[in-house]
Amino acid sequence: MRSHLFAPKSALASSPTVRIAAFVLLLAAGIAAALAARDPDEATQALLVDAVEAAFEMDLYNARCRSDQSGRRMENLNKELVSRYRMTVLDVQDDYFPEGYYRDAQERMQREFQERLREMGGCPGAKEARLRDTLRERYESAMAEVAKGP
Question: pLDDT digit string (tens) for 12-32?
């Protein structure tokens, strides 16, 4: 019986142990690459947080003052995040918001927006102050930055 050290290369390559080891190495490399691609730098994280906040505020304004419950801005941002960063809005809220949990982040953003709206005198005051235009500009700017990609 011959030792595997002296076996022809073709026999060594077909060894189940070698094939399993090669598979494990490829799998580990793929996982490492996926994790590295998903972990943006601090500037990108701040950009993603700003984009989520801008979309959330725009949708809150539309729901509160325009009776538009579509959530279209968050949906559009979600599509962009999935295609560019392989993450969702909820991933951003869970991973990069200071609260560390998407529901807490959403509650804070909603509370802060309601306070802002109250200070402006409700929807009539917000419309007079052209809050919708300000929110739209912030949203469109954030979406343009997100669309540039990593």
Answer: 556 667 667 656 666 555 555
